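dude i think i finally got it to work??
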Amino acid sequence: MRQFFKFLFSLIFLVLLLYTVNNRYHLTDWLFFTGYADQTGNAQTFVKDVRSAMLEGLTEIELRFVGKVESMEWFTEDAIDLVYEIDDKRTSSDYDYLRYKTNSIYAHIVGFGNVLTITYEFEYNETAKETSQVDETIKKLFQKWEIDKKTDYEKIKMIHDYIIENSSYDTDTENYSAYDNLINKRSTCQGYMSIAYKMFTEAGIPCRIITGTGNKDSHGWNIVKLGGKWYNIDCTWDDPLTSDGKSISTYDYFLKSNGDFKGHKRDEEFKKEEFCQNYVMSKVSYIE
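look at this
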């Protein structure tokens, strides 16, 4: 029994010693880097790795992080927000498109000290293969339209008209991706605003997605930049449902100022001073 207590005391002493030395010299960091030299633990690198996984349409990824964060919420909130803030002009599949293509993100975090392993599980409303099909379809359409020869106004009008004529609103609210809108020709407003964002962006028209309410119901639309000014454009509401089921196109919500954009109310993030300074809306609706 005496030998047992002696062993137990030695074990406790060793654990306390290791804990003290680790806090002072960060041995776990050194051990980690010795075994995983490719993992920098740099927050910027970590964010890029998460973004790359999401752009590839991966449903799960495991990453290691070495460093200190204020709280575990950094991985589930701040890091994801940083992913969505990246706007690479070489692709239209990131930024707003990626944000609204992603349905949910689950993160499982384990580790010791400053060494953490984060497993992300992603769920999307559009697969990577479907996004590729969307891109290919848009490319063919633009070639057919000779989009590069059009003025910015002509580009915006052609895209607006095509979306309305090509698709219809999904009253069952089951289809809400850009793929659903462009390929399956039926979606909710999320599909309208997502395909509009991708097509405007691919055509070289600065565009953002705005969410909020439309006549007090959850809704989303776009703003586009034309002639140095920003305008509202709502392809969903310009594609109204008719009693006889016939498709009609309107321009009631085409290139409108906030004052002429009735029934729409932005979410708070799009009413903040910084956002409004970056996206100054025209005081008057666009007149051709």
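DSSP finds ten helices and ten strands in the chain.
im so relieved honestly
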